[in-house]
Amino acid sequence: MAAKSSSSEPGTVRPGGRTARTRAAVRDAVLAGLVEHGYPGLTVEYVAEHSGVHKTTLYRRWGGVDGLVAEALGLAGEDAWTPPDTGTLRGDLRALAHGIVDTFTAPGTAAAPTALIAAAFQSERAAEALRAFHRERFARCGPLIARAVERGEAPAGTDAGAVVRAVSAPLFLRLFITREPVDAAVADEAAEATLAAVAAGAHVTTAG
């Protein structure tokens, strides 16, 4: 948003009612435009037409396309997602990995998150919003690792963000770099490799 740079950061609590409806309409229009045209083809005029929000309001509140994409990421970061709690670290890591695969391969729903990631390669403001989104996601995974430490499945000082990056990295490599197929077996492989690394203390970043 143009008025306050922090307003595009995920996790910020905002009022409901008309403001929430406006933001949701803008987000949906931004995602539709990214899927249809990609970041280079997204315009404020497109968002205005498809959201019902006048373009002068869009410029005033979000400043342009960069701000609109950052807003879409910010709103995504305000969801109610919580990390899995299966009772074991193995189960939690597998559930995380399967969630990533499902998000980026499910027909009809994968296009929008994929388009947001693509936009972050073309806009520094969108990239910062994406980093903020993931920082907040990593923080939500803190209890997952805390439970694993309590059960003796992970050494004290294991960093939740490092663990989530480890389980996600091979999946994103296949999805966005090598364009190899990903499925449940690949997700389980990523989880098992991360589980072994955690047990070996590879992701301990603070003193226990």
CATH-derived topology of the largest domain: Tetracycline Repressor, domain 2
Helical percentage: 55-70%
Secondary-structure element string: HHHHHHHHHH
**Alpha-carbon distance between the termini?**
40 Å
- What is the approximate shape? elongated
What does the largest sheet look like? none
Number of strand elements:
0
Number of helices, where a helix is a run of at least 4 consecutive DSSP H or I residues: 10
Task: Return the CATH class of the largest domain.
Answer: Mainly Alpha
CATH architecture of the largest domain: Orthogonal Bundle
User: What integer is the average pLDDT?
Assistant: 90
InterPro entries: Homeodomain-like_sf, HTH-type_TetR-like_transc_reg, HTH_TetR, Tet_transcr_reg_TetR-rel_C_sf, TetR_C
Keywords: DNA-binding, Transcription, Transcription regulation
Organism: Streptomyces hesseae
Protein name: TetR/AcrR family transcriptional regulator C-terminal ligand-binding domain-containing protein
